[in-house]
């Protein structure tokens, strides 16, 4: 199919060939069959890493090699139990690592799948929005500004259509497209003006195409191998942690070498000292951390989906937590985007319109009285022009009326229907000849309609101030006359009054056009128009936004509204929603034009609302805030917003009203277009970072506890309180599940009461570093105290004479003499305290400042389960037959367990007391 010169053929001939047409498109059944035949419309992705390779990758680690070497050496020396036990631990560690990484990989894959693009396709005579991957050859696809072209197609119709084909041809200037057949069959891709290609985007205008090829058969598919995106992108935190992790490995290896040398100096056998050091190194290095970070990020991102936030680029999650400014569009994000025409200014009078929503039931009244005949005719005329310059459709869904398309246009259709005018009927009488589509920079649109008379009819609608500028005449009392200064003053006054009441105002104009050409230049059609009237519609604020704005302010986040709407409308909505606090002001795009960049940088923090702005202004605003050192989140929907969205620290696109191009440029998509969801995303972003910090805090303080215990014992010349196999076990029992459970902890309730985190902030700053060492010291202290305590009460010296025991047992032991306590029992106790105190400590890490009893013991059930499971495993290995030989432990008595639990709670109790003092 790819060898045919589609561009030289008539569109109708192509459609015949492909068994389709522009009236009904393909039937669902045919589309289903073609999907089976041609496959999904997608580019083949590079194979991910296979599970086997992922598992084998777990052994590709220097420390693990040493551990395996140690196993082999132990085996040769006949230490079979040790050798097998260490091997088992290595394998269990690899399995845990594999599960964590596999899960992380799967979660990331799920995220990638969520960002599917949709296309509007004609099937069974109806327009459907379907995932672009389901498009098949023969489908009729509708295109408009901001859409990505989903497959290669031949245009059947186009109105001012331009596409950007840089992804294929490298040419970034938009190409003008038309549906006319071309002559030269050998034209290069870039010159095939009647074709559109997968992966290119529509920059302006609209069109309709019939799909010719899909997936790997498209022009993009042919070069897909060359442009496939390189692997996954690490977040700044992941990159920082990698560097930090390397430093940590050197530090741990340094300490472990010291312990090794001390052991040798104490004349421990070389193998034992070696095994001990290797085990300690394994335990001290938080090798599971990268996977935990990925899982915390990926699961957090999945949690965000439930709050209507779709993260497209993982690094955005971190930036979200640092957001200091949110710049938001008004229409649809702060407001409901459910418009109803409330007032119509026509024939010099302001008429009230009753009714709710898009329901076409309602009346027109002037001063609470029915309209006079001439007023009724003039109102109907204004609405008629609005309907003929309109791309929306009203649809009845059971009992409610819905709009397919732009709500502003839907509101006009509904108001017109109240006057008895239905789009379908009018369109038949006045078929479309050409269109200059709406664009938020132009703030207007126009159509040229064929009429039953010997003229065309130009219909224009747009922002009232913009429309008035295009007019030279006015239609009033059923007659045409020149538009005077007084008329303009009256119209502007009326516009201001309506905007003051937070109404969105649309101006309506028209003119007869004596032209033969079907696609005339807007410079001709959109000038010397006749002013017909104004339509004012309500767009109520979303009820949850006011609270969300207040939450932002409490969280130290500045909120800014940027809208294309009238200054007064923006002002009224801004006031109502709490944007205009602290004497911050409202300015218009024209004022912004007069401010040089340096002045704007100084003033930007004083401006809360920008009205009548264009996409270009948005870019300036983002740059000014960024120059101030702020982390800026910026929303966008239209194709022109893409540069500002890209420039923002966090570019946000709208899931419902957003164009593909803006979505593609954005870091995240708000699936319900709601400002409150952006605030929820910031909250989650802060929470995810906080949780990762908790996991790191926990892992490092526990590891510090293990190292310090062995270091102190070594320095004090005590028999080592833990065996290598025990240290390896601790690594499994405490590092895995509890650290993961902390990584997915519930977001702290006070998280939005704290100021935003600085983006340059180190995840482990000086304070946290000191806290980690201190808590590690407490864990080591509890372990050593439990060890010495059991030695003391099992020694031959009578308990009670503590000073005597110190002088006669402990000090001589430190100097190389005997120690008569029950060493095996003391080691079992120390081993248990090391594990259980770390489990208690995991609860400390849930919040560095607030007591567990304030945040709630049961608010992280996963942590309770994880610690409960680890505790049960610890008790089990002490009592399960044979495992005592492997782990070199012995069953303990009740009084040992009481002591173990007593010492294990030490770190928790001390931290709770400190938190208590910190609070007061
Ligand atoms: P925001 O940027 O907050 O979403 P907005 O939706 O009001 O603002 P635009 O879509 O750029 O901004 O609209 C700017 C102006 O253009 C509106 O105030 C309105 O007067 C006019 N307008 C909006 N939609 C249409 C439309 N479909 N046809 C004609 N004019 C429109």
UniProtKB/TrEMBL annotation:
Residues 5-79 form the Cation-transporting P-type ATPase N-terminal domain. It is a multi-pass membrane protein. Gene3D superfamilies: Calcium-transporting ATPase, cytoplasmic domain N, Calcium-transporting ATPase, cytoplasmic transduction domain A, Calcium-transporting ATPase, transmembrane domain, HAD superfamily/HAD-like. It comes from the Bacteria. Keywords: ATP-binding, Cell membrane, Membrane, Nucleotide-binding, Translocase, Transmembrane, Transmembrane helix. SUPFAM superfamilies: Calcium ATPase, transduction domain A (SSF81653), Calcium ATPase, transmembrane domain M (SSF81665), HAD-like (SSF56784), Metal cation-transporting ATPase, ATP-binding domain N (SSF81660). The keyword ATP-binding applies. PROSITE patterns: ATPASE_E1_E2 (PS00154). It is found in: Cell membrane. It holds the Pfam family Cation_ATPase_C. The chain crosses the membrane at residues 52-77, 83-104, 248-266, 278-301, 696-715, 727-747, 768-792, 826-843, 863-882, 897-917. Belongs to the cation transport ATPase (P-type) (TC 3.A.3) family. Type IIA subfamily. This is Cation-transporting P-type ATPase N-terminal domain-containing protein. It comes from Candidatus Brocadia sinica JPN1.
């Amino acid at each position: 199919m790819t060898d045919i010169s589609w561009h030289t053929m008539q569109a109708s001939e192509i459609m015949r060939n492909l068994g389709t047409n522009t009236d009904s498109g393909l039937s669902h059944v045919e589309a289903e069959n073609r999907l089976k035949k041609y496959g999904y419309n997608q580019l083949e992705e590079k194979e991910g890493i296979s599970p086997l390779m992922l598992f084998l990758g777990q052994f590709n680690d220097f420390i693990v090699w040493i551990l395996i070497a140690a196993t082999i050496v132990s085996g040769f020396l006949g230490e079979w139990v040790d050798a097998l036990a260490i091997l088992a631990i290595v394998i269990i560690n690899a399995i845990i690592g594999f599960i964590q990484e596999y899960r992380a990989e799967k979660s990331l894959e799920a995220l990638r799948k969520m960002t599917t693009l949709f296309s509007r396709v004609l099937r069974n005579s109806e327009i459907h929005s379907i995932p672009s991957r389901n498009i098949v050859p023969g489908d009729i696809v509708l295109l408009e500004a901001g859409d990505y072209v989903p497959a290669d197609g031949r245009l059947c119709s186009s109105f001012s259509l331009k596409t950007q084909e840089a992804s294929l041809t490298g040419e970034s200037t938009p190409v003008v497209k038309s549906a006319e057949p071309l002559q030269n069959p050998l034209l290069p891709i870039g010159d095939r003006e009647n074709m559109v290609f997968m992966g290119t985007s529509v920059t302006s205008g609209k069109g309709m195409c019939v799909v010719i090829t899909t997936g790997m058969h498209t022009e993009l598919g042919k070069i897909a191998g060359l442009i496939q995106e390189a692997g996954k992108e690490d977040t700044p935190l992941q990159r920082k942690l990698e560097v930090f992790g390397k430093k940590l490995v050197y530090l741990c290896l340094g300490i472990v070498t010291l312990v090794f040398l001390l052991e040798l100096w104490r004349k421990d056998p070389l193998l034992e000292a070696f095994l001990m050091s290797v085990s300690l190194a394994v335990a001290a290095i938080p090798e599971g951390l990268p996977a935990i970070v990925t899982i915390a990020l990926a699961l957090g991102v999945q949690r965000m989906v439930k709050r209507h936030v779709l993260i497209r680029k993982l690094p955005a999650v971190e930036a979200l937590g640092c957001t200091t400014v949110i710049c938001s569009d008004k229409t649809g994000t702060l407001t409901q985007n459910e418009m109803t025409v409330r007032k119509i200014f026509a024939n010099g009078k302001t008429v009230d319109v009753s009714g709710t929503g898009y329901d076409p039931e309602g009346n027109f009244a002037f001063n609470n009285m029915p309209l006079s005949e001439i007023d009724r005719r003039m109102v109907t005329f204004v609405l008629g022009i609005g309907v003929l310059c309109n791309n929306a459709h009203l649809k009845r869904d059971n009992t409610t009326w819905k709009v397919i398309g732009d709500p502003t246009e839907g509101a006009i259709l509904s108001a017109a229907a109240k006057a008895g005018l239905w789009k379908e009927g009018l369109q038949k009488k006045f078929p479309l000849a050409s269109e200059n589509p709406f664009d938020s920079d132009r703030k207007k649109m126009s159509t040229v309609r064929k009429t039953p008379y010997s003229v065309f009819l130009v219909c224009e609608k747009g922002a009232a101030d913009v429309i008035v500028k295009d007019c030279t005449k006015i239609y009033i009392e059923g007659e045409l006359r020149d538009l005077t200064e007084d008329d303009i003053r009256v119209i502007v006054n009326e516009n201001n009054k309506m905007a003051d009441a937070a109404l969105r105002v649309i101006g309506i104009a028209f003119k007869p056009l004596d032209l033969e050409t079907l696609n005339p230049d807007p410079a001709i059609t959109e000038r010397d128009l006749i002013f017909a009237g104004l339509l004012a519609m309500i767009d109520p604020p979303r009820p949850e936004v006011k609270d969300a704005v207040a939450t932002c302010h409490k969280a130290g986040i500045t909120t800014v509204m940027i809208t294309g709407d009238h200054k007064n409308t923006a002002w009224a909505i801004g006031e109502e929603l709490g944007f205009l606090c602290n004497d911050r002001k409202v300015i218009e795009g024209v004022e912004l034009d007069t401010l040089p960049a340096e002045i704007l940088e100084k003033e930007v923090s004083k401006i809360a609302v920008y009205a009548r702005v264009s996409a270009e202004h948005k870019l300036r605003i983002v740059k000014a805030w960024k120059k101030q050192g702020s982390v800026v989140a910026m929303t966008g929907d239209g194709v022109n917003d893409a540069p500002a969205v890209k420039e923002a620290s966090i570019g946000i696109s709208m899931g419902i009203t957003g164009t593909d191009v803006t979505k593609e440029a954005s870091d995240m998509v708000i699936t319900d277009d709601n400002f409150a969801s952006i605030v929820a995303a910031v909250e989650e972003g802060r929470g995810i970072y906080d949780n990762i910090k908790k996991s790191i805090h926990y892992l490092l303080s526990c590891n510090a506890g293990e190292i310090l215990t062995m270091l102190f014992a070594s320095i004090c010349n005590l028999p080592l309180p833990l065996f290598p196999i025990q240290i390896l076990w601790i690594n499994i029992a405490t590092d895995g599940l509890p650290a993961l459970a902390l990584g997915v902890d519930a977001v702290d309730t006070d998280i939005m009461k704290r100021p935003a985190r600085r983006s340059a902030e180190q995840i482990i700053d000086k304070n946290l570093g000191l806290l980690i060492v201190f808590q590690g010291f407490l864990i080591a202290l509890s372990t050593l105290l439990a060890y010495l305590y059991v030695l003391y009460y099992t020694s031959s010296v009578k308990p009670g004479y503590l000073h005597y025991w110190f002088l006669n047992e402990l000090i001589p032991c430190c100097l190389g003499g005997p120690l008569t306590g029950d060493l095996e029992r003391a080691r079992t106790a120390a081993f248990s305290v090391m594990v259980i105190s770390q489990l208690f400590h995991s609860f400390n890490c849930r919040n560095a400042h607030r007591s567990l009893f304030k945040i709630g013991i049961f608010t992280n059930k996963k942590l309770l389960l994880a610690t409960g499971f680890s505790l049960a495993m610890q008790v089990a290995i002490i009592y399960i037959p044979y495992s005592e030989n492997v782990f070199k432990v012995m069953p303990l008595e009740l009084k040992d367990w009481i002591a173990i639990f007593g010492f294990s709670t030490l770190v928790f109790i001390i931290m709770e007391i400190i938190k208590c003092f910190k609070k007061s």
